[in-house]
Amino acid sequence: MDVETLSRLQFAGTVMFHYLFPPLTIGLGLIMVILEGLWLRTGDVSWKHAARFWTGIFALNFALGVATGIVMEFEFGTNWAAYSRFVGDVFGSALASEGIFAFFLESGFLAVLVFGWDRVGPRLHFLSSVLVFLGSCFSAVWIVVANSWQQTPAGYRIVETEVNGRTALRAEITDFWAMVFNPSSVDRLTHTLIGALILGAFFVSSVSAYYLLRRRHELFARRCMTIAVIVASIFSVLALVSGHDQARQVARTQPAKLAAFEGHFQTGPGDLYLFGWPDEKEERVRWGIAIPRMLSFLVHDDFSTPITGLDAFPPEDRPRVWIPFQAYHLMVAVGMALIAISLTSLVMLRGGRLFRCRPLLMLHVVTVLAVFAANHSGWVAAETGRQPWLVYPSEQGGVMMPGLRTSDGLSESVRAEQVLASIIMFGVVYALLFALWVFVLNSKIQHGPDERASRASPQRGFLQAAASIGSERHDLLETPTDGTR
Fold first, then answer.
1. N or C: which end of the chain has fewer CB within 10 A?
2. Is 426 within 8 Å of 414 (Cβ atoms)?
3. Per residue in 238-252, pLDDT tens?
4. Residue 397 CB: number of other CB atoms within 10 A?
C-alpha cells in the first residue's frame, strides 16, 4: 500500500478506537447527574450508591479517552504535516478553547466527583457531577467545531507561507465566531451529542437488564433501567429529527456527500434506498429496495425537485460510494431500531412489565453493541463522504477559496514502511488496552453497586421520588427485590 492509504488507515483506526470512550462518558455523565439529583432531593442513600457505581465506570472510560486522544494529535505532525500547516491556525484556536473551557473544567472537578464522596457535602458533589458532564459536552463542542470547519469552512482567508524554500498555502482565521458557527457545526454537534446520550442510556440499560436476568441488584437495576429507558426514548426520537436536519444541511453544503450516501449517480429526482449494493462502474445501485422520489421529498418537501448527482462533479472530485453508502444506511437502520426498542420498553415500564419480559431484557443487553456500531458508522460515513478533500473548497466573500486534497495533506518525509510499522505497534498496544478495558469493565459490573446500602434503603421508585417526595402513594414501578409481586 502507498503512504496515503496507510496513513488514512492508521488515523481511522486510532480515531475509531478513541471514539469508543468520549460518547460513553458524555452519556454516562447525564445519568450520573440524574442519579445524584435524586439522591440530593430524596436523601435516599441507595441513589448515592447507584451514582457511585456509574461514576467508577465513567472514570475508567475518561482515563482511556484521554490516553487514546493524545495519539491523534501526534499523528497530525507525523503523518499529516502539510495538513497541519494548512489548518494550524484554525485547529490551534479550537483545541486551545477545548483545553481552557472544557478539559480543565472536566478534569478538575473529576477529582471531586471520584474521590469526594465522603469528603464533601451532597450539594458540592452534585455540582461537581454537573460540571464534569458539562465539561465533557464542551470538549465535544470544540472537537466537532474543528472537524465541521473542514467540511464547511468559514471565517478564514488563504495566505501564502514559505516552507523549505517552497510556497505553501495556509488558512488564517479572520472571524473566530464565523469559524465556530460554520454552516454545519450546530447540526453536527447536536447529532453527535444526541448519539452520545443514546449510547450512555443503552449502556446503562444493558447492565441493568443483565442484573435483572441474573436476579442481582434488582432495586438498583429497576431504578437505573427506568431512567435509561426514559432517556433513550427521548433522545432516540430526537436523533431522527436532528439527522433529518443534518441531511438537509449536507444537501446544501456537500451535495456530493449526500449523493454518495444514497447512491445517487444521475442528477434528478432522488430515490430513498433502504439498502442496496452501489456499483460505481455501472453507476447504479444493485439489489436495492428504494422508495421512489422520497429523497427529493425529504430534502426539498417536493417529490419532483432534482437532487444533485455524482455526475455533476468531475471524477477526481467524487467520493467513493460503497463505504459511505453502507455506513450511512447502517447508522439509519440502527437508529430506527433504537426508536422501536426504546419506545416499546417505555410503554412496558407501566406495571413493571419490562422487568419481567426476558426476551426484551436480553435484547437490551446486546443492543448497546449496535449503538456503538451506529456511532462509528456515522463517523465513517461523514469522513469518507467528504473525500477526496481534507478541507472542502468554499466561497468566502464572493471569492472561491481552494480546499486541501487528502493526497496533498501528507508529510513530505514519511515513508510507507514507517507508517506500516507504527500501525502494527499501535495495533498491539490498542489490543492490550482493549483487553484491559473489557477486563476492568467486566470486573466492575460483576462486583455491582453497594448492595448492603441498597437493601437498607427505602424502596422508592424513580418516578415517585421525582414527582412527589413526601407522598406515600404506591409506585407502579416499585416491586420487591426478590422478583415477586
1. C
2. no
3. 999 999 999 999 999
4. 7
Pairing of β 272-279 and β 284-291:
antiparallel
What is the β-pairing status of strands 404-405 and 156-163? unpaired
Residue 471, pLDDT > 50, answer: no
The strand pairing partners of 169, in sequence order, are 160
DSSP state of 103: I
Selection from 404, 406, 387, 156 nearest residue 254 by Cα: 387
CB 155 within 8 A of CB 179: yes
Domain boundaries, the chain: 1-183+394-449
How far apart are alpha carbons 354 and 6 in whole angstroms? 47
Q: Distance between CA 103 and CA 467 in Å, rounded?
A: 35
Contact between 406 and 4 (Cβ < 8 Å): yes
- Report the SS3 class of residue 281: coil
Average pLDDT, the chain: 88
The DSSP output letter for 413 is S
CA distance 122 to 118: 9
The pair phi, psi for residue 97, each rounded to 5°, is: -65, -35
